[in-house]
Amino acid sequence: MDPIFQVERVGKSYKNAKVSEKVLHDVTFGVERGEIVAILGPSGCGKSTLLNLLGGFERPDEGTVLFEGKPVDGPSRNCVMIFQQYGLLPWRTVRKNVEIGLERTGLTAGERRRRAEEYIERVGLSDRIDHFPHQLSGGMQQRVALARALAVRPKVLLMDEPFGALDTFNRYALQNELLRLQESEKQTVVLVTHDIDEAVFLADRILVMVSGPGRIRREIRIPDYKPRDRGSPQFQHYRKVIYDLFHLSGQEIQTEFAI
Ligand SMILES: Nc1ncnc2c1ncn2[C@@H]1O[C@H](COP(=O)(O)OP(=O)(O)OP(=O)(O)O)[C@@H](O)[C@H]1O
């Protein structure tokens, strides 16, 4: 066991129009190095807030968030966030968009250039390297965002519904791509999604959240078989487990649920 994140009894509230709303309550879990963990739950249950706490963009009101045993006290290059809306600079080419993440890393201009080329090739976009974002499809733009994140060689990729804006075919292609890249780079990935299929396809472990206030209801460990076959009975089995879970109510919270 080599935990990279340890989240202990975390609580978080926000004040909106002078009313305090408890967004997360008593959230505890760990993430192992090299693991892909999906945080799955309905809209508003606090998934993004949890990801922001891991990334150091927010602080907990209660409890602790540890990264490699130390409290997270702000964003760091160890954890790179990828959002649904790509976040590319429209006036920069693919190459320059990837290089931007490498500024202030101590790499020389030549090293930045080579590193960017390497990762653009890994995501299969070498032939588009001098294109601007508007000349690319949504799937290609998200590939650029992935290359930009990976080029930093972070220990952790934090992904907030990264494929949510893509059509089904592009989404599947990017999910395959992510698994392929993660297999070689061995990053830890924490992914927020409300797409049950995406969670089952990508994750080693799924944290199922419920709202009011946001908390973890179940932890589902998916046996290690990759690449996963979306049409297999095993895949359908895990989908059904989660569908059933969302139709249940008033259940005790279980932290471990192995099938
Ligand atoms: N910075 C903020 N200030 C005030 N309230 C916030 C802030 N961020 C989130 N919230 C509130 O916290 C709750 C949880 O939001 P969060 O974005 O974490 O949920 P989510 O599960 O990621 O939702 P979605 O799937 O729709 O993105 C919501 O009620 C939201 O309005």
UniProtKB/TrEMBL annotation:
Q: Which Pfam families match?
A: ABC_tran (PF00005)
Q: Does the keyword ATP-binding apply?
A: yes
The record, for PROSITE patterns, names: ABC_TRANSPORTER_1, ABC_TRANSPORTER_2
SUPFAM superfamilies per UniProt: P-loop containing nucleoside triphosphate hydrolases (SSF52540)
Q: Give the lineage.
A: Bacteria, Bacillati, Bacillota, Bacilli, Bacillales
Provide the leader sequence positions.
Answer: none
Question: Which residue ranges does the record assign to the ABC transporter domain?
Answer: 5-236
SMART domains on file: AAA
Q: Which InterPro entries match?
A: AAA+_ATPase (IPR003593), ABC_transporter-like_ATP-bd (IPR003439), ABC_transporter-like_CS (IPR017871), ABC_transporter_ATP-bind (IPR050166), P-loop_NTPase (IPR027417)
Query: Known Gene3D superfamilies for this protein?
Result: P-loop containing nucleotide triphosphate hydrolases
Query: Can you name this protein?
Result: ABC transporter related protein
Swiss-Prot/TrEMBL keywords: ATP-binding, Nucleotide-binding, Transport
| Keyword Ribonucleoprotein appears in the UniProt entry | no
